[in-house]
Amino acid sequence: IQPPAYPSFDCRSDGKNVRWAKWVRHLENHVFVGCNIIDPAQKKWHLLTYGADDLNDIVDNLDPDDLTQLDAVAATQDVPAVPAQDVFMRLKTALTLILIIVLTSNSRGTF
């Protein structure tokens, strides 16, 4: 099944936290469920493909230290732990924390 057209995520506008939750939920429900995409690596690929340049720029700038810091932040935000082998959920959780916590509190919009 060919995945449908899907809008990219706008990382620059206000209200990222609400829009991100809605955007990723719709991606999971409409694209992943609709096209029977169950493999975490395929989900990660689709997330990055549909996410477009701004989202990919955030991911490209992540390093292992950032992920370690995000794990610590996740623990304080009641975010459940994600198995390291689930590359999609790990990336989704990292992006959620970055978009909701870091970028909304950082006026420059950089990580």
List keywords for this structure.
111 residues, mainly alpha, 63% helix, 0% strand, disordered C terminus
Please provide a written account of the structure:
With 111 residues, the protein is an all-alpha fold. Helix content is 63%, strand content 0%. It is built from four helices and no strands. The protein has helices at residues 16-32, 40-60, 64-76, 87-105. Helix 1 packs antiparallel against helix 4 and helix 3 packs across helix 4. The chain is globular and about 40 Å long. The model is unreliable at 107-111 (pLDDT under 50).
Quickly describe the structure.
This protein has four helices and no strands. 63% of the residues lie in helices and 0% in strands. The relative contact order is 0.17.
Distance between the termini: 36 Å
* Computed Rg: 14 Å
> What oligomeric state is this?
single chain
**Tally of strands:** 0
Low-confidence stretches: 107-111
User: Structural class of the secondary structure composition?
Assistant: mainly alpha
Largest β-sheet summary = none
Mean pLDDT over the full residue set: 78
User: What sequence of helices (H) and strands (E) makes up the elements?
Assistant: HHHH
**Coarse shape:** globular
Question: Helical region count?
Answer: 4
What's the helical proportion of residues?
A: 55-70%
Percent strand equals under 5%
Secondary structure: elements and pairs:
Layout: H1 16-32, H2 40-60, H3 64-76, H4 87-105
Helix pairs in contact: 1-4, 2-4, 3-4
